[in-house]
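Course assignment 3, question 2. Fill in each field.
Student: A.L.
Task: Predict the tertiary structure for the chain below.
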Amino acid sequence: MADIPITDIYPCLEELLEGKYEIQERVMIQGNINSGESCFAVNDIVIHRAQNPSLVDLSVHIDGVYLNTFSADGLIISTATGSTAYSLAAGGPIIHPQLEALVLTPISPHTISNRPFVFSPKQKIQIQYLNETKPVEITYDGISQCSLKTGEMFHVTNSTRKFKIISLERHNYFTTLRQKLNWSGQIRNRNIYISLSSRKKYSITT
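Answer field:
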C-alpha cells in the first residue's frame, strides 16, 4: 500500500492482473508477558510510559545476558519493515525490508549515549519494568494493546509466521523511500571551485 500512489493505481492494477510482481516474505515478531498469550507485529512493538508523568526504567536482556537499563519514555522493537515508521522518528536506522533484523530504539532516553541497537531476529529480547509506579503500555503495530506491571517480564522473539507482501515491477524500494520521506537531493553535474589558503583553485567535477 505504501508503494502505490493513488495517481498510479490503474497501471499498478494492470501489472497485478498480468502477473508482473513478486511476493516477498517479511519477518514478524511476537511478544508475551511472562509466557502468557502471544501477540504478533509486522512493524513494531512499543513499550511506552503511558500515564506515568516521567521517565520509566526498563531493564533489557538479550538471550539472557544483561544489556542495559534504559531510563526513557519507552522502547521500540522494530522489524526491518517497520524501521521507517516510529523507530525512524525516534532516531532509529533505515533497514532494507528484506533484511532479517530487529531494531531496539529508546524513546527520548535520559542518557544521550543510548543509541539504537540492531539484532538478529534469532536473538530473544527480555524487558523488565522496574518502576514501582503505574503500569506501562505495550502496543503491537499501533492496534492491539496490553499493560506491563512493575517487576513483570516482557519477551520478544522472532515469529514463525511470515508477512507476505506483493512487490510490483514498476516500483522500486529506494524510489519509494525517497518520495515518502520527501528527500530533496538530486543528481547534479557541475564544477565546484574550492579556494584554499594558498589561493590555488582546484576544479572538482561531481
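Instructor remarks: The two ends are 36 Å apart (CA to CA). The longest strand covers residues 153-168.
Grade: pending
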